[in-house]
Amino acid sequence: MKEKNGDYVENKVYEHRVLKRMSQKELADAVGVSKQTIYVMEKNNYSPSLVLAFRIADFFDVDVNDIFSYVRGSD
């Protein structure tokens, strides 16, 4: 989700979830959020809290930077 200044957080949640052959619901249950949260996150319409970002990275056993990256806007 883009901020007013154009900054946003890009993610690779979808790619990691598909590689594990998991549904959005299964991932949501594993990290303690709703399926809707995973859905909007995968569409880059939601930036997770730091705690949730680390929880997702921990679940996939990767560094948080392997899934989430900060993109600086040009505004």
TrEMBL record:
Question: By its UniProt entry, which Gene3D superfamilies does this protein fall under?
Answer: lambda repressor-like DNA-binding domains
UniProt-listed PROSITE patterns? HTH_CROC1 (PS50943)
Tell me, what is one Gene Ontology molecular-function annotation carried by this entry?
Answer: DNA binding
Keywords per UniProt: DNA-binding
- Which CDD domains does the record cross-reference, listed alphabetically? HTH_XRE
Q: SUPFAM superfamilies, from UniProt?
A: lambda repressor-like DNA-binding domains (SSF47413)
Matching Pfam families, A to Z?
A: HTH_3 (PF01381)
Report which superkingdom the organism of origin falls in: Bacteria
Tell me which InterPro entries the record gives.
Answer: Cro/C1-type_HTH, Lambda_DNA-bd_dom_sf
Annotated ranges, domain HTH cro/C1-type: 13-67
PANTHER family from the UniProt entry = DNA-BIDING PHAGE PROTEIN (PTHR46558:SF4), TRACRIPTIONAL REGULATORY PROTEIN-RELATED-RELATED (PTHR46558)
Q: What is this protein called?
A: Transcriptional regulator
Organism of this sequence: Priestia aryabhattai
